[in-house]
Amino acid sequence: MTELARHFAQVGRVNDAMETLQEALSRIGHTGERWWEAEAHRVMGDLLLQRSPGALNAAQNSYRQAIEQARQQNAKSLELRATTSLGRLWRDQSKRTEARDLLAPVYGWFTEGFDTPDLREAKALLIELR
User: Fold this and answer.
1) Predicted confidence band at 105 (pLDDT cuts at 50, 70, 90)?
2) Domain that holds residue 25
3) CATH code, domain carrying 53
4) Which pTM does this prediction carry?
């Protein structure tokens, strides 16, 4: 459902995207199948900012939920995505040190796959945060 939500967002249907993610998170709560819960929270944070750039606290909370869920599942790729998203938010809030301190250890965990989009984005952000 996160892919459907992304599609809605790409075509400017942010409210539909958010409703889709809310439904996905509700289903997760009922079924207990949490495989993509972290990604759903991360995308929700992105959508909150897209709909209302002033929704910083709500977006930050969504990113934190994504990070926590990814850590509970030991899902390093999803944790990397969520920490990169929160790192960007903090960069924009002039919290560069906090952003770097959050992202660097997650990025440092990886030993291969550095040509993947997620790792390239994380590396670019880390370079920017120096």
Assistant:
1) very high
2) 2-128
3) 1.25.40.10
4) 0.91
